[in-house]
Amino acid sequence: MTAHRFAVGDQVRIKGGFGAQPSDADMFRVTATMPPAGLSLQYRIRNEEERHERVAKEENLEAVIIADAVAAAL
Fold it and tell me: How far is the CA of 74 from the CAs of 39, 43, 47, 68, in angstroms?
């Protein structure tokens, strides 16, 4: 069985940006790892701006690099 790439507490964002700097609204924190859906590993993620959590597949997520987080804060 394949291991999850992200751990609870990791900061991630949903793929699909076109080179724009991420904003706080684009960043999520992994709140739980979930069993696979077919061959795709899944996560529960949450943005602090929202009241709900989302479920996302691993292939739709990318890690937030510390430099991205610092740039978003500027």
Answer: 39, 29, 19, 10
